[in-house]
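Deviations from the work plan: none for this task. Representative record:
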Amino acid sequence: MAILIDCGCSSKYIIKNLNYLNITPQNIKAAFITHAHSDHISTPGINFLHNNDIPIYLHQDIYSDILKKHRDKIEKCNIVPFYKSVEIENIFVQSFDVHHKDKNISHTLGFTFSSTINERKYKIGYLTDTGKVCDKIIKNLVNSNILIIESNYNKTILNSSFRTYNNKKWILSEKGHLSNEDAANAIYKIRSLSTSKDSLKYVFLAHISKHHNTNSLAIKTSKKLLLSKNIHDVKLFITKRNQKCPTIRIN
Ligand SMILES: [Zn+2]
C-alpha cells in the first residue's frame, strides 16, 4: 500500500519513480495534495490519478484553487478539513495549515502520517512550501521519527539570481519558501521539543531549488547547526529530482 503526496509531473515520470520503489499505481490508495501550484498538481498529474482511480484528498480551499485551472478534470475528490485525521489502511493522515500563498493559491498544507506497528507508534512529518515555521507547525511535527522538510534556497545565491525583484521578495517572505537556515532551525526546534527517544532519526531535505541552492549547501547548513547543538544522531539526506534517495523501512 502506498500514499502519494502531490502529483505535479507526467505519468511517465511518476511510473519511472514508482518502479524504483517496486510500487505500481494500483498500490496507491490515496493522493494528498498540499496546494495548487503546478509543480504540485498539474494536468498530467491529475490525468495519472484519474486514469488509475487513485482517490484525491484535499482541503476545500485547495480544491477551489485547483478548479480555477482544471475545471473539467478534477471532479471526484475527498474534502478534508484542516486538522481532521483521515485513515488510509491503518495510517492516520492529518493535515495542518502552513505559510505559503500568492494571488493564485489560498492555502497550503503540511501533513503527518501516524501508524502503530507491533505496538509501537511511528510518525512521519511532511513540510514543503512554507515561508516560515511557526510554533503551531512545530507542534504538529514534534515526535516525528522521519521528517521531510523543504530547504529551498541559499539567501546569497537567491539575491544574486536572475529572478525578478518581486519574485525574490515573495520567495524570501513569510508566504514564500524556507531558506537553508530556516530549515536547519526548524529541524533543531522539532528535535529539541520531541520527547520520544526515536524522534527525528531521519531527515530528508526536500524542494531544494536548482537555481537558488546547492545540495551541499543545504545539507551543510543543517548539519552545522545540529552539530553546534551537540546533536549527532540525526541522519540527513538530500532528495534529488532525477535520482532515487534512500528509503527507510519501519518495522
Ligand atoms: Zn508552491
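The CA atoms of residues 50 and 191 lie 38 Å apart.
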